[in-house]
Design a protein that fits this description.
This protein is mostly helical and 405 residues long. It has one domain: Up-down Bundle (Growth Hormone, Chain: A), CATH 1.20.1250.20. Helix content is 76%, strand content 1%. Strands 1-2 form a two-stranded antiparallel ribbon. Strand 1 and strand 2 form a beta hairpin. Helix 1 runs parallel beside helix 4, helix 1 runs antiparallel to helix 9 and helix 19 packs antiparallel against helix 20. The radius of gyration is 20 Å and the shape is globular. It is a multi-pass membrane protein. GO terms for molecular function: carboxylic acid transmembrane transporter activity.
Length: 405
């Protein structure tokens, strides 16, 4: 993968932005039971924060994407990262569940812009032959953020420093850290060459472009709905499953989650690169097929070691499929709205899938239910749905990207 120094810095900035965005999001998944305890409620009630964060992300994707298509990918990416950092940290000061849920909804708006901005900036800045690998790298930012959250949770949570025991509020203060990336972006990351070239010409508007390409946009939203069920349905409640159903301590929950996200990184890199050889559609199909036989090991094992193996394989499959998505959506999207449309499609799919967390928790805690059953049900059904739906997708591997197409 031959990239210039500027292109490498662009990919690194986009990767770090998505990594720390995911870090902020996944911190919550480790803290659901503790927040529920402090606010005298149950896990399904607190898990509505997951729903609100996912449901509002499409607003941020549209808002920040429109600004980026008008003013540039780089400045809007900087604004977006500062926004989600500050709002994420404010959750530490929530006096009650209502305020906490409101702040997580606002965090979702800020979080929603990053993926579209980062992926369009990277994909427009690199040669076509590098897109598959870079797509995998970018999407690996998500499990890398989850892994980082697991490490921080395992190392810091409930530790005593200077007589103060680190609780869930202190964990959210770590959300200030992503803002430091902005300094790197401002100093070292160039603007998208495609955007710079496009400023010399008149581009069609968003509504005009959507009218022309409404069919592929609608199809992609449905596809991303299933993809978001796939990722969040296998990730968000897994720490809760390990704690509540198996009674594991924070250290054990942390290392199992770390193993799972190492699998996710392996999957994203492997299938992103593989998509350059066998195509985007075939790579996604293969990844989803791998998920199905891993379900019994992942959801019904009883020992930490076997659960970790199952989690590793499951996330190889889940994030292997996801590793193809940044390049696939950018190749499907018209160039004039590339900062807006891929991110908006992604987050509109998130909106459609946003109630998955509370719904899963409700199944798990219903009489006769379990977290293992709820996880297995989601993973199996959604993997099959993606296999069916992705076969209808156009294949546009390697097409030239401009902002005027």
């Amino acid at each position: 993968m031959n990239l210039t120094a500027g292109q490498k810095k662009t990919v690194l900035a986009s990767f770090l932005g998505w990594t720390l965005d995911a870090f902020d999001f996944f911190l919550l998944t480790f803290l659901l039971t503790d927040i529920a305890s402090e606010f005298h409620t149950d896990v399904p009630a607190v898990s509505k924060a997951l729903f609100l964060t996912l449901a509002t992300r499409f607003i941020g994707a549209f808002f920040f994407g429109m600004l980026a298509d008008k003013y540039g990918r780089k400045p809007m990416l900087m604004l977006n990262i500062v926004s989600y950092s500050v709002i994420g940290a404010l959750a530490a000061f929530s006096p009650n569940l209502g305020i906490f849920l409101a702040l997580r909804a606002l965090f979702g708006i800020a979080m929603g812009g990053e993926w579209g901005l980062g992926s369009s900036l990277a994909m427009e800045s690199i040669p076509p032959s590098a897109r598959g690998m870079v797509s995998g790298i970018l999407q690996c930012g998500y499990p890398a953020g989850y892994l980082l959250a697991a490490v921080v949770y395992g190392l810091l949570y409930q530790q005593t420093i200077g007589g103060y025991t680190i609780g869930w509020r202190a964990m959210f203060l770590l959300s200030f850290l992503p803002a430091l990336i902005v300094l790197f972006i401002r100093s070292h990351v160039p603007e998208s060459p495609a955007f710079v070239e496009a400023r010399k010409s008149v581009k069609p508007g968003l509504l005009e472009t959507l009218q022309k390409h409404w069919g592929i946009a609608l199809y992609a939203v449905v596809l991303m709905m299933f993809f978001n069920f796939f990722s969040h349905g296998t990730q968000d409640l897994y720490p809760t499953f390990l704690k509540k159903q198996h009674g594991f301590d924070p250290h054990t929950v942390s290392w199992i989650t770390i193993v799972a996200n190492l699998g996710a990184i392996v999957g994203g890199l492997t299938f992103g690169a593989l998509s350059e050889k066998i195509g985007r559609v075939n790579a996604i199909t293969l990844a989803c097929l791998i998920a199905l036989p891993s379900i019994p090991l992942w959801a019904y094992s009883t020992t930490p070691f076997m659960l970790a193996i199952g989690a590793f394989v499951m996330q190889v499959a889940v994030q292997g499929a996801w590793g193809v998505i940044p390049v696939h959506l950018n190749e499907l999207s018209p160039g004039s709205v590339r900062a807006t449309l891929p991110g908006f499609i992604y987050q509109a799919g998130n909106l459609a899938a946003s109630y998955g967390g509370p719904y899963q928790a409700g199944i798990a805690e219903a009489p006769g239910g379990s977290y293992g059953y709820a996880l297995a049900l989601f993973a199996g059904v959604v993997a099959i749905c993606i296999i069916v739906v992705i076969r209808f997708s156009p294949e546009r591997r390697g097409q030239v990207m401009t902002v005027l197409s």
